Amino acid sequence: MNDELIRQLLADPEKLIAKQPFTRGCEPYLVSEDGKTVAVNGTITARPPRFKKVVVSQERFMKELDPNSHDILFDDNIPTLCIKINNGDYKDIVFTKQAVPMQKIIKNKQVLHLTGHKMQFTLVDTEPTRKQQMDFITFKQYWDLRNQDGMKTKMVDTQKSYGDAGLLYYFDLNGRVKSRLLSFADGYVLCPHNDQNGDRILECVYYYNEDVEYIDCYDSKYMYRITRDNNATSDDNGWTYHNPIEHGFDEIPLITKRGEVAWNDVETLIESYEILYNVFAAIQRRHGWGLLYIKGKFKDAAQKIAGSYILNDTSIDGKGDAKFLTPPDPQGYLETLRLLFDTIQMGASTTFLLPKDINYSGDISGIAIKLVQNLDINRALRDVIDWQNVADKMVRLFKYGLAKELVRSGENQTAVTDFEQLNINAKFKVWQPMNDYEYNQMLTILSGAGLLSKETGIQKNTESAPDESFRISKQLEKEKETQQQQQRTEVIKSNVNIKKKKKIL
């Protein structure tokens, strides 16, 4: 069934690059059922949803993420500053509009809380053999060597920046398992395809290389490449099919993740904040040097008074007057800015904790800081669940690829079979404002109280090496051997002393 569906997709490249769009907001319309009445236990005729959402492009996400591309910088409605120059003409002073990089701050904060710790691994086996323990250590060592935690962080960062992200596993020319990030920002468009049950059957990557279009598709065994060169002649509407290539894995080697960008729910609030911020800045600049109002005639030299702008009213019908005009009270603007600032934090589940917000005069507990950042932590805890499938597949692909690498290199000829026996559970660990000492001390207390196994305490300790359990066991064996040697030495010394005493007697 799925094989036939894959063949149908591959036969039509236009279907391969069909992709569900990202959306934000909806088309305004009145639902016919709204406002109607129905009796208790009454029914209405069911109908499919007619809710239509507005498409938002990934180019828009790129624009929103880059503060140098924000709409506010091109907004001509921001007030300008007009002054009178010496020759009597008037001139607009160019006001440099300012963008606020809130989208990037929100994204970075969410990425930090989700990926600030290394992936947590657990060997799911009540009584693992010595061989399984050593293979588990090997897996964790290579995981670090190939910077898989770094790739995990990059993937999360990319998804929260541009809506989706891909992580492709492959074997390099030396047979080593590697991974590379596929991002829309680098020109890669990810087009996943599922069967009727929602299971992934094909992952496609659409991109350009010079003047050639590429569609690379991956199923559980092959990589299919389809290209189109407008300067060449080919069949199938310009598309050329290349021979399938075995990718070497036992499942689709491309992991894709799709979701909302980090700031999606607060984009309109951020835009409102930027507008108000710039209007306020323009008004403050307009009145910042003071405005001296003079009613009556004065000498030219008087125009330099206090370095202020001077408004001269020569149409007097009585006594002259001179005074500084009071600029608009900024308090209303500031209160509105603060309200928007707080609303953005709530809407994005992100806390903007600045150094000025911390009272350094007293000791601030980690619990207090965690309470302040409760929004961030709760968001990250939801993200952990959402990203669990990615963590599981990263482990499966890397474990399988590493096993084949070890066989190919001759390091472990039975690695493929051995690693199949490794049931490794992987989880994202939410970063919280707790220092490593406090965290490791907590693990020690739990282990000592019997609420946590020593093995788990070792695995989760931030200072532990991938083979920490093995190192500890070797150390204990060495200490035991040393102790036994000392005991043997003491026995020998004791026997020698007994013999000496017997000779004396």
Explain what the structure shows:
The protein is an alpha+beta fold. The chain has a domain at 2-28 and 103-262 and 379-434. Helix content is 42%, strand content 18%. It has helices at residues 2-10, 13-16, 58-65, 102-115, 130-145, 148-162, 267-287, 331-348, 366-372, 374-386, 388-409, 415-420, 436-448, 454-460, 468-504, and strands spanning 23-26, 53-55, 81-84, 90-93, 120-123, 164-171, 177-182, 189-194, 200-209, 212-218, 222-229, 239-241, 245-246, 254-258, 291-295, 309-313, 321-324, 424-427. Strands 8, 9, 10, 11, 12 and 13 form a 6-stranded antiparallel beta sheet that branches. A 3-stranded antiparallel beta sheet has the order 7-6-14. Strand 8 (189-194) and strand 9 (200-209) form a beta hairpin. Helix 4 runs antiparallel to helix 6 (148-162). The model is unreliable at 302-307 (pLDDT under 50).
How would you characterize the largest beta sheet?
A: 6 strands, antiparallel
Number of helices: 15
Structural class: alpha+beta
Q: In terms of per-residue confidence, which ranges show pLDDT below 50 for 5 or more consecutive residues?
A: 302-307
Oligomer: single chain
Average pLDDT over all residues? 84
Which of globular, elongated, flat, extended, rod-shaped describes the shape?
extended
| Amino- and carboxy-terminal Cα gap | 97 Å
Helical coverage, percent range: 40-55%
Strand portion, in percent?
Answer: 15-25%
Backbone CA Rg: 34 Å
User: How many β-strands, per DSSP?
Assistant: 18
